[in-house]
Structures are given as C-alpha cells and as structure tokens.
C-alpha cells in the first residue's frame, strides 16, 4: 500500500506558488523539507512536482536504469537562451549525444593538465590584486571570484582574454547572465496573467539573451578568423567530430554550448570559492589546518600542477563546503519511459510516470543518517580520505549524476584547489565584519550575499617579492617528455602488437599512443585501435594491451560493444590470446572504481586467455596517471615481453641532459639530488650502532610525518675490493658492454669496473636457484657441482665464489647474474611542520662481521655534511599518518629504529600545540611505548622525548630488554603494552588510533597483547572470547583503528 506524500495546503488556481519565496526559493523548499520529511510535493502551474531531502531516496534517483535527467521548471526556461546545450538538452536529444562524445576529451586528464598554465596565469592576477590593495581594503569576495572564474574558462577553454581584473565594471556577459538566470527562475512561478503585464521584463530578458549570444559570436568569429593549433574546447566545438557518428556540431549547437560553458564554467565555481572562504574564516581550526597543509606540501615556491593531487585537506574543505552549500543546489529526474508504472521509491512512495522529482541537495547534505549528528557543523575531516570513501553511495552529488553529471567537474576542481592553495600560501584572511551572518543570493545557483573580507600578506612577503615568486621557476612537463622521447632510437619494428583503448576523455587514448611510441623502439610494430574496433578480431600469438576506464561503472562509448561481445564470445576463440590490462579510475567513484578494467580482465581469464602480467591501475584523482603508467610498462610489461623485445639504444643527447642523474635513469629510479646536513651516531660505542642523518630536500619533494625516504646507495669499497681480488682485476680496469645487452648498465661506452660494481649492481643479494645452476656449469668437476647444489645458506654469489676458489667463472657471466641496484627506504623521523625542506632518518648500521656489510646503511654512515645523495619520497599507507582531529588519542608502539616515524609524530604534535594557541590539555592523550636494550646506552632521542613529555606533548614508556628491572619488569615493547593495558583500553575505547613500527616479532607481540586485552575486556562484561576471536578482532581493525609498519 502506498504511503501518502505530504503537501502544504494549496490555494485555488495558484497551487503552492505562495509557499515559495521568489527571492530565495531554495531556502523555502529546504524549510518545507524540514517540516514535511524526506519527500513532499507541491503544485506549481497546475503540475505536481516532487522533492526529496534524504540520501537514501537520492541514491534511488541516481539509478540510471530507472531515472533520467528532467528538464523542467527553471531549467526548461533556460533553454530560451541556450537551447539544446549540454546542461539543458532533453533526455535522448540527438545533439546532446553528439556534443557530449565530441567535447568530453577536452576535459580529460590530459586536457585539464594542459590548461594549468593559463589557469595559473588568471589566478595570479587575483593574488596580485589582493597583494596590492593591502590589508585594510574591503574585498568583495563573490565579485572577485566571478572575475577569476569567468576569465579562466574563457582563456583556458576558448583562448579569449576578458581581462576582468583590469576593469572596475564586470564584463557585460556577467550582468546579462545574472539577469537571464534570475528571470528564468522567476518565470516558473509567474502566472500567464502576470506575464501579460510584464512586457518590459520580457524585453529585458530577450536583451540579456542577445548580449550573451553576441559575446559568444564574437569569440567564435575571432577563432575562425585566427585559427590556432590548440586542443581546447573551442576547437573541439568548431572542428571536432563525433567519434561514433562522424558528425560535427551544428552552428546553432556550437552557440548554445558556448553560452552554456561561459555560464556553467564560472558561476558555480565562484560560489564554491566564496562559500569556502566564508566557512574557513568562521572555523579557524580548519583554516589553520588548510594553511599548514599548503605550507607543508608547497612551501614557499610556486604552486605547480604536481601539487594539485597532494592537498587532500584542501579537497576535503571544498567537499564539505559543497555538502552544506552546493552551488547548483538541485537537480531533477524523471522515470524513464520504458520503466513500467507506477514508480515506487523508498519502498512506499508512488510517483506518477510523467512526474519530475527534484533532489534538494542542501537538505540531503544535512541528512544525519548519511553525514552524522553534527551535520550543521563545518568539519572537513568528515570528507577526508577514508571518511569520504565510506559515505553512503550517492550521498554527495553536487556535480549531478551519471551521464548527465557536470562535464567540467575536473576543470572546476583544479581551479578551486589552485586558487585556495595560492590564497592560503600568501595571505591571512579574515571577515571584514566579524559579525556577518551568512546571507544567500540565488539565481539558478547560489552564492553568499554581501560577504566582504580582508586579506593581509603573510609575514615576510611583500607584493613585489610575491610577484617574482609566482612567476619564477614554474615547472612544466616539457623536460619530462623530452627525456622520454629522447630515450629511444626506433629500431626497425618487426613483431606485431595490438594496443586497444576505451576512452571518453582522451586519457586512455593518450596512454595508448605513448605505449605505441615506446613499443616501436623495442622492436614491436604496434597498432592502436578502439576496443570496439576489435570485436571478433582479437589476434592470437601476439601481445594485446588493453587500456580503459570506467564511467559511472559503464564502459567508455568506444568500448561498450566490445564488453558485451566479450561477455558472450565463444571461449575457444580466446585460447591463444595473450593480454595485459591497464585501468584508469577516480577515487571519488568508490563503488565503481576500476569496474570495467576488472570486468575485462575477469572475462578474458574465464575464457582461457593468458595474462602477460597482473592488471595495472591508476587513480587519476591522484594526479599521477602518467607516472603510474610509465612504472607499469617499464617495470612489468616490458620485462614480461623482454624475450621478444629489444632494448632501445641510448640517444646521443640524453647523457648531456641527464648529467648527474644518469645512473638513476639507467636504473629506472625516479630520484633527485639532496644534500646531507648532519650525520651523527646516537648510541654508545659498545652497543649496536644507530645513526641520525638529516638531508636538505629539493623543493619539488614533499612529505608528511610517517612517510619514507627512499635512497639510491653505492656499494661499500671493501665489498668492491673483494670482487676485484676474486677476479684478479686491477682498480683501473675498464669495460664496455656491447649494444643489444639486456641490462641497466650503459652500453657502447667505456666504464670503470669499479664504477659499475659500486653504482649499478647488487653485490650482496642472496644467490638464486638460477645463479646456482649457472655456477654449477663452471664447476669443472662433479664433486664441486654437487657441493654447489647442496648449498642451503643465504649466501651471495660473491661469497660462494670466495668459498670455492676452484670455480672459474668469467667476470662477464658474474656481472650478468647480478640484479640492478635498488633503492632502500627508511621511515622519516621528522615533520615538515618544522621545515618542509629538511627530512631526517634513523637507521641501524648493518655489519655482521661475516663478510656482510649493509649496503645502504654503511653508505649512509660514510656520508659527510655537504655530500650529495640521490633520493626520493615514498608515501606510507594513508592510515599511517597522524589523525587530523586533535581530540583523537594516539598510541605508538615501537622498538629500536622503529621509533623513527614517531619522532616525527611527536615533533608535529609539539608544533601544533605551540602554534594553535591551545594548551596541551586541549589535545587528546598520546602514549609512546619504546623498546630498546639499555636505559643509558641506546635510548635514542631520550633527552628530546623527555623534554616533550615535560611539556605535556606525549607520555613515554620504556621496555629495556637487557635491564627489565628498570622498566617494571617489562622486557619488550609488547610486554609494556600489556602492563599498561588499563590505560590502553581506556584510550582505545575513547577512539584512539594505534601505530606499530618495528620488526615482525613486535607486530606479532602487539597482536598477542591486543588479543589478550580483548579477552580481558569481554570477561569484565560477562562475555567469553577465545584467543582466536581476540586475534580476529584485532586483525579486523587493521587500517581503520591501527596501522602497522613492520620491517626485518
């Protein structure tokens, strides 16, 4: 039985028109939602319209197998000015399909990246203006952000400079657009009689439309008269073809979409930035965290494209703003015609087949079931990292839904992040009127009304210095691509390879072309086709590489036929097919992330096709899709095809360009040069050596406390000498590898043997079974061969050669058995809050005294202040970082050099406390449990930790394995954890996050203690837990309540 849908009382002939405030209709609707519940209806102009305010009902409306976008109400009136543009086209309208397929690539990952420099240009005009007017000048926030966003979309997408920052008045397009949108909204609730007596309003409406069309015509005419070779939106409109039908956009449709993009490309983003500034000013703690993130990630240099994916708190602040104030505050759907009626939503509400249903996003964003009890509070942590990923499906939809979602979302997101990063990097912002209460100005979108603020340059920045900084040293990707294209001289390709892509935005197509270019230099004649072009045409006995994305869980337009064919194809046709799949996706679409690449891989495997390698994947939301793809093809694909491929020859100009990074380039390690600032021993001479080394990082490397520093070492001179002695080589011996050798050592050049042994190969790695088999071939007699076969110890090839002098192994064979030098990573023991250009590590120096010297630790030990090293930053797991919320207690457990990340954690807590203006008591408790041998010989950082403990930053508890009587009988860190179980349980019950860093035995010991605590806690509540249940409970919490960094 149907549940009646509530409705306010109606007035004859007028319906519910009088219930809606014409100046702020959205607020009226939200208030009605509060009164009438998750769904209600209104009668407007003789038609019933339905409104939903709950995330559960919105999730149903987002099902594109049941509902499609509805063009009704104000949006239908907007068609008077923009016709069948992308946002106002009716469902199934042919021109929308042609325009969508033609224009989506302009807003793909590659297209958005290419727009960055022009976007940066406009953003810096805003920053320069605010710097010059000074801190006492009132800033009209929405006006300036409107100038910014209009100029950005015009320049980036259409090559047109409106130069809005150089005029007191707004561009005529803005005034016309505002008038047009206001009137479109008002016409919905106006009766026919009222319309007859408002001819002047109609005249103004048509004048506004004419002004917008005039601006669009001018831009189009200028491009046609002055064509440019640029892959921007305007060229796509003028010259692009629908990849499916081959059609071009009609002149009328070009005009409609030009106006659409000029409106949508700036109106909502300016509102987003304005609301975000308001909420950050009103919430100083969030403002401080956002500014600290910019300081940590960007530092004082220019904001680059590479920074866009490294500002998660800024992203969370923007998401939280759109939850509370979605600038496009509603969208409407209607049941699909082929869905049998009546339509039921929520399991109880019957909706007429021809009804329009409006999702009220401001009300849905305040649904406590989806977003928590504190829905009226601005709390970016709610939308940060895993918290955002765990939101109910489709609860956050400020950019619309599915195929009709906002095509320009990547553009708006990059622009918003860039603008906020520049703003927070250079200014302290405050409200002009501290007592200002948020007022809303509504057209079809919403913005703050009468919101003014002031911006003062941060300490140490002046306007001239700021301008020089913004335009100095701005990096582009040109060098990267030059180096990549310079890596190969194309050999004569002979072996076939098929590269298939599925792509709407152009990103996967770009990756496919990149792969084809690289394949040529490795002897493959690669052809590139869409997936649909391969239906019933998959070749056998040649590699097939598939690169594709998912779009709301569906295949790209040029891959949909292939996917359906693949599901139904005869498995016999797949027996001799060999393939590799690389998938692109975006983390914001959690439920459908990598869905299509996984489906294709699964179908091929189930039908008997043979995988070359495991599926590769990249999150384009992380901004590293090109690096991810490079790593996948270099480290996996080409290695799998190495038996068939030919190594590329090194081009002549590359060495000059790469200079000191040649080794890293040949070894395929993406490292940079850094300088050693300090290097000191931390332990007494009579205990195992632990050291502290500090580096000055290049400005392009950023990190968070808890991340890793990855270092490319050099072999110890003593080990190199052993190799030379074993093979009877002098120190000045030279070698030349001939072209064609499959190796990471440079070919066709004379190299010192000591340089190769020191920098390019691993000398201490344990011999593999393959190595043993090779050595047996050179044994000379059966007895020695049998001895070699019986080796069970983990010995290096060098150690075996030293143990068996009778082995006459040629040096060239020995060299071929060695693996390339690899990087070593160490937990960073500092925080960028102290100085983002400095990072330190702690490590134990490995010297077993049995012919084995740790390669990296002995290399590190040898470094002097001023030495140059090659290193990079590796991100730790997202869960191994400090919680953003200072009210979350933390528990840290470590042993030995496992203390390293926690020194960074505690240092960061100390700085946060000192700079927040709060007391240490305002921060949740922090417990640090440290395991070491002695209280007086290897208690590293003891004085500094004692100082922080005295300041209330952390409580430090020790376990001394050689002096347990000095640590309450606790021998190991896990023993101390159990000893402190009452405190630990109390903190864990209060929501604490735990972190463990040390050896695998520590990880097991902590798990054992945690399991026993679970049993103990259950028993106190009258329940019984088995030990296995305790361990399962602990393992279930991994990644959510605790994080582990285990090493051996």
Automatic annotation (TrEMBL):
Entry EC no(s): 1.14.14.1, 1.6.2.4
Catalytic activity: an organic molecule + reduced [NADPH--hemoprotein reductase] + O2 = an alcohol + oxidized [NADPH--hemoprotein reductase] + H2O + H(+); 2 oxidized [cytochrome P450] + NADPH = 2 reduced [cytochrome P450] + NADP(+) + H(+)
Cofactor (UniProt): FAD; FMN; heme
Keyword set, alphabetical order: Electron transport, FAD, Flavoprotein, FMN, Heme, Iron, Metal-binding, Monooxygenase, NADP, Oxidoreductase, Transport
Keyword hit for Transport: yes
GO cellular component, one term: cytosol
Binding annotation for heme: 406
Entries under Gene3D superfamilies matching the protein: 3.40.50.360, Cytochrome P450 (1.10.630.10), NADPH-cytochrome p450 Reductase, Chain A, domain 3 (1.20.990.10), Nucleotide-binding domain of ferredoxin-NADP reductase (FNR) module (3.40.50.80), Translation factors (2.40.30.10)
InterPro entries, alphabetized: Bifunctional_P450_P450_red, CysJ-like_FAD-binding, Cyt_P450, Cyt_P450_CS, Cyt_P450_E_grp-I, Cyt_P450_sf, FAD-bd_FR_type, Flavodoxin/NO_synth
PROSITE patterns, per the entry: CYTOCHROME_P450 (PS00086), FAD_FR (PS51384), FLAVODOXIN_LIKE (PS50902)
Entry keyword Metal-binding: yes
Record-level Gene Ontology MF annotations: aromatase activity; flavin adenine dinucleotide binding; FMN binding; heme binding; iron ion binding; NADPH-hemoprotein reductase activity
UniProt-listed PANTHER family: BIFUNCTIONAL CYTOCHROME P450_NADPH--P450 REDUCTASE, NITRIC OXIDE SYNTHASE-RELATED
Family, similarity comment: In the N-terminal section; belongs to the cytochrome P450 family.
Protein name as catalogued: Bifunctional cytochrome P450/NADPH--P450 reductase
Organism, as annotated: Exophiala sideris
